Amino acid sequence: MAEEIVDGKIKVRGVFMKEKGLIQIYTGNGKGKTTAALGLALRAAGRDKRILMVQFMKKWDYGELHSIKKIPQITIKTFGTKDFVHKGKAKEIDYQEAEKAFKEGTEGVLSGKYDIVIFDELNVALDFDLLKADEVVKFLKDKPEDVEIIITGRNAPAELIELADLVTEMREIKHPFQKGIEARIGIEY
Ligand code: ATP
Ligand code: MG
Question: What is 19-179's CATH number, 3.40.50.1010, 3.40.30.10, 3.90.1150.10, 3.40.50.300?
Answer without folding.
Answer: 3.40.50.300
